[in-house]
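task queued by scheduler; priority normal; single chain, no ligands, no partner chains; default sampling; output format set to structure tokens
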Amino acid sequence: MHAPRRSFTLQQAFADSQPLARLSALVRESAERLAAVQQLIPPTMRTAIRPGPIDENGWCLLVDNSAVAAKLRHLAPLLQQALGNRGLAVTAIRVKIQKRL
């Protein structure tokens, strides 16, 4: 006989799993970092940038095209400094082109 299935939300699944909870925290932290430097990014570029993964090598930003990637790489030192001033220091900012589906 099978045990009855229990329903739970995705949020509960993330909270109940240590790896998923860590992933959720990293996603939230990445979004917070992007929000912290948003004002330093030209308004016309903002919709083409998404927060990416955070790992031991730094923070990654995902962009829609090479033009935005080039400008963002130019701004990276300024963004790193601003993050450090807010206590969100990163060792490096990587930029990767990833077209939206």
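post-processing summary
- The mean pLDDT is 89.
- The longest strand covers residues 49-55.
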